[in-house]
Amino acid sequence: MRIGFAILRAVVVVVMVAAVAAQLTRSIQVTAAAGGSVAGLLVNFFSFFTIDSNVLGLVVLAIGAVLLLVRRGDDPEWFTALRAAAVTYLVTTGVVYNLLLRNIPLPQGTTVAWSNEVLHVIAPAYLLIDWLFAPGRTPLRLRTVWGIAVFPIVWAVYTLLRAPIAADPVSGKQPWYPYPFLNPQTSQNGYLSVAFYVLLIAVVILAVGYGVVWISRRWRGGRPLPSVSAADPA
Question: Which string of DSSP letters, residue by residue, matches 123-181?
Answer without folding.
Answer: HHHHHHHHHHH-TTPPP--TTHHHHHTHHHHHHHHHHHHHGGG---TTT--S---SSGG
